[in-house]
Specification:
3 helices, alpha+beta, 14 strands
């Protein structure tokens, strides 16, 4: 199947150094796990994205980010009136320093529309429905299982991220051969 790119927001790698991000970190006891407080996380993500998109977006996160590798928090970024979710994931912890990545996220409705359009192009008719249970995080190899409905038949669909380039997320679509 052909790949397409769907717009999302940039992914970023940020390393808070002890000198610039020390105020943002709270240590849970002596030698404990560092924590990036919500307000500092929102400010840092906004400043990082501003460097990539040219204007500082509004960022809203639901809570603090714990300095544990693979720990994540889903934040909402508002840029030019558009609200886009991003996933912030801890990639590395070195003492009190927390490195994290901001991955663009495609809303499930956007994924559903793109999958439907691709299938319509391929077979000449759009499916009755494509339903995806979650958003697609723009990280190469990330998969999302969706359900395609055509009449009374339902088929599983696997959407796999193949590339992320700045604000673009490329993905492949694979429809199961067996009707569920």
């Amino acid at each position: 199947m052909r790949r397409s790119r769907s717009a999302a927001r940039p992914r970023t790698r940020v390393l808070l150094s002890a000198g610039t991000g020390l105020a943002a970190l709270l240590l849970a006891g002596c030698g404990g796990t560092p924590v990036l407080e919500r307000a500092d996380l929102e400010r840092d993500v906004a400043q990082t994205l501003a460097g990539q998109v040219g204007t500082e977006p509004d960022v809203s996160c639901p809570g603090d980010l714990t300095g544990t590798v693979d720990e994540s928090v889903r934040c909402e970024v508002t840029l030019d009136g558009d609200q886009v979710p991003v996933e912030v994931v801890v990639t590395e912890v070195d003492g009190a320093d927390i490195a994290y990545e901001v991955a663009p996220t495609l809303l499930s409705t956007s994924v559903e529309q793109e999958v439907s359009a691709r299938l319509a192009e391929q077979v000449g008719v759009a499916p009755d429905d494509v339903s995806c249970p979650d958003d697609l995080v723009g990280r190469v190899g990330e998969e999302l299982r969706c359900v395609l409905t055509a009449g009374t038949d339902e088929l599983g669909v696997t959407v796999t991220v193949t590339e992320v380039d700045g604000t673009e997320v490329g993905f492949d679509v694979q429809v199961d051969e067996e009707i569920s």
